[in-house]
């Protein structure tokens, strides 16, 4: 692949490459580049927002370059303040190591892990060995004024919110990671721009060739407003069950659908536009849900999630999501699970009750005079956290029994036969009396 073509492929979906000409020069050198990603495993779960950066790194791997994933077991004990309006609570070394084990396993869903294109490092290897003299040398490379140029620090300083001195050390520690591995490119979201640019300065101070800062956009969450985040409950996990993933992708807000196609798939812009014109929003959503869900059913997603992969699943992109069932598939097991997820979504969307719903058995002693309070039943079934929440949902017409809306929060139910409880559109539990 030519340098121009490789650069065009890498630029797709990128928010900023600083400086782009240096990336071109590095690619033209013909040597294997070191592509760095630092991750503080403060949470052990990865979602599709993380996948945006990881998929771009996968492209570098397919071009023959090496990914160095640096687990910030040491920096995690500092706490990265990027994009935050208060200090992030630090973790212990044991906590970061425990979270890292799950993190690395999930990264393997996207990144290849052959030794020639992947290396895992922990930054405690070098940061834990730094003498205080070296820390002072690091700190001398950046001024307080430069630190306060960072948006989150600036906002907190202006608002009078305390900034601990150790937080200033975080971007320096991250920058020293780049020195330790001699990074050619550092990846991150747009909220990491300051840290990545500091890395360039620190590498220069240590006499190294400066890394290119490669920034990817932040994927909006399912609310279409905030960034995708588990804490905001607007996320799609990379290991999520296909039925759940498909359902969530079908509910991506229309105004961010194009971003999801751009950042999570490799369909061309013209192909996405054709989808929207031919199949409308519903058809385009269905193609997105099939393509992404099908990819993440695999042990490792394909190098390209494009037209060829969609057709390999047994679908025709020209049908714009209107083809009712997959044809012959190169991935029969994937297609079977994908078809099941789609059928379940369609059944619920039409007001039906899916067959594969969890069963909860109710102990006979929960019944009084042969009946059980409806609020208590929903709580026992796990659809509500408390009887009070169940009562509030009933008052808002949010709970159903056998498809019928529950209107009386004091209703008593017998369990002479199994009942299907429903919360909202798609949370179902079948309950029956324990024998």
**Low-pLDDT runs:** 83-88
Per CATH, the architecture of the largest domain is 3-Layer(aba) Sandwich
Annotation, overall tally of beta strands: 13
Mean of residue pLDDT values = 90
CATH superfamily of the largest domain: HUPs
Fraction of residues in β-strands:
5-15%
Shape: globular
- Please identify the top-level CATH class of the largest domain: Alpha Beta
- Side by side, the strands of the main sheet go 1-6-5-2-3-4
CATH topology of the largest domain: Rossmann fold
Q: What is the percent of helical residues?
A: 40-55%
Structural class assignment: alpha/beta
Order of helices and strands: HEHEHEHEHHHHHEHEHHHHHEEHHEEEEE
Largest sheet: 6 strands, mixed
What is the overall number of helices? 17
> Gap between N and C termini, in Å?
67 Å
Tally of distinct domains: 3
Calculate Rg over CA atoms.
Answer: 25 Å
């Amino acid at each position: 692949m030519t340098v121009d073509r490789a650069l065009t492929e890498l630029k797709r979906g990128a928010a900023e490459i600083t400086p782009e000409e240096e990336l071109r020069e590095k690619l033209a050198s013909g040597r294997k580049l070191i592509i760095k990603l630092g991750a503080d495993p403060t949470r052990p779960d990865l979602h599709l927002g993380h996948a945006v950066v990881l998929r771009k790194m996968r492209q570098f791997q397919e071009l023959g370059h090496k990914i160095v994933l640096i687990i910030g077991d040491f920096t995690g004990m500092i706490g990265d303040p990027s994009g935050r309006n208060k200090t992030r609570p630090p973790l212990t070394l044991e906590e970061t190591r425990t979270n890292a084990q799950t993190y690395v396993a999930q990264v393997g869903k996207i990144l290849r892990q052959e030794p020639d294109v992947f290396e895992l490092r922990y930054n405690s290897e070098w940061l834990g060995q730094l003498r205080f003299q070296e820390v002072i040398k690091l700190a001398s490379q950046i001024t307080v004024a430069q630190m306060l140029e960072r948006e989150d620090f600036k906002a907190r300083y202006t608002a009078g919110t305390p900034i601990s001195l150790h937080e200033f050390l975080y971007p320096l520690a991250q920058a020293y990671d780049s020195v330790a591995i001699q990074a050619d490119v550092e990846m991150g979201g747009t909220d990491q721009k300051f840290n990545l640019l500091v890395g360039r300065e620190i590498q220069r101070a240590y006499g190294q060739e400066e890394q290119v800062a490669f920034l990817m956009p932040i994927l909006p969450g399912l609310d279409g407003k905030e960034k995708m985040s588990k804490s905001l409950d607007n996320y799609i996990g990379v290991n999520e069950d296909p039925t759940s993933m498909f359902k969530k992708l079908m509910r991506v807000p229309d105004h961010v659908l194009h971003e999801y196609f751009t950042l999570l798939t490799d369909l061309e812009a013209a192909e996405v536009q054709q989808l929207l014109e031919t199949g409308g929003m519903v058809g385009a959503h269905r193609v997105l849900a099939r393509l992404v869900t099908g990819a993440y059913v695999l042990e490792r997603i394909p190098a390209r999630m494009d037209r060829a992969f969609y057709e390999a699943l047994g679908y025709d992109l020209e049908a714009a999501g209107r083809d009712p069932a997959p044809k012959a598939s190169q991935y029969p097991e994937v297609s079977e699970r994908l078809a099941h997820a789609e059928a379940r979504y369609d059944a619920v969307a039409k007001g039906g009750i899916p067959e594969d719903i969890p069963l909860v058995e109710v102990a006979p002693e929960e019944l009084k005079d042969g009946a059980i309070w409806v609020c208590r039943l929903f709580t026992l079934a796990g659809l509500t956290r408390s009887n009070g929440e169940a009562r509030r949902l009933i008052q808002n017409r949010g709970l159903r029994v056998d498809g019928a809306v529950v209107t009386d929060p004091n209703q008593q139910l017998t369990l002479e036969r199994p009942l299907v409880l429903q919360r909202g559109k798609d949370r179902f539990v079948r309950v029956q009396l324990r024998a």
